[in-house]
Design brief:
Blueprint: E1 2-4, E2 19-22, E3 25-31, H1 46-63, E4 71-78, H2 84-94, E5 101-106, E6 116-123
Parallel strand pairs: 4-5
Antiparallel strand pairs: 1-2, 2-3, 3-6, 4-6
EC number: 3.5.4.-
InterPro entries: RidA, RidA_CS, RutC-like_sf, YjgF/YER057c/UK114
Pfam family, one: Ribonuc_L-PSP
């Protein structure tokens, strides 16, 4: 088991790692739209928050030796499920087919007042070792 860390994504705001690699599988902790430099929410705008979350996830994926293309399962947490079409739009820009399996979960609140959080599972190919 190996902890993954990068300064290009927000520091953990609790007792957890940004990601954990176990063999070729990487478990990505939830990312909220914090700016990695300031550790503050990037914006109150949901579109900008979604973009920041995906950029944060991408940074952790790269630190683990992969990319967003290696994500096989993505969980999306939204405080307002009416924003679901915006998730689909952003995913069409950040992912290519075959898209990861995904769940969208409505929640009453997220850390730091964010509107979106994403976590996932990434599988590295043998060429990513």
């Amino acid at each position: 088991m190996q902890a993954i860390h990068t300064k290009l994504a927000p520091e953990a705001i609790g007792t957890y790692s940004q990601a954990i690699r176990c063999g070729q599988t990487v478990y990505l902790s939830g990312q909220i739209p914090l700016d990695p430099e300031t550790m503050q929410l990037c914006s109150d705008d949901i579109k900008l928050q979604i973009t920041q979350v995906l950029e944060n996830l991408a940074a952790v994926c790269e630190a683990a030796g992969g990319s967003l293309a290696n994500i096989v399962k993505l969980n999306v947490y939204l405080t307002d499920l009416s924003h679901f079409p915006l998730i689909n739009d952003a995913m069409s820009r950040y992912f290519i087919a075959p898209y990861p399996a995904r769940a969208a979960i409505g929640v009453s609140a997220l850390p730091r007042g964010s509107k979106v959080e994403m976590d996932g599972v990434m599988v590295l190919s043998s060429s990513n070792s």
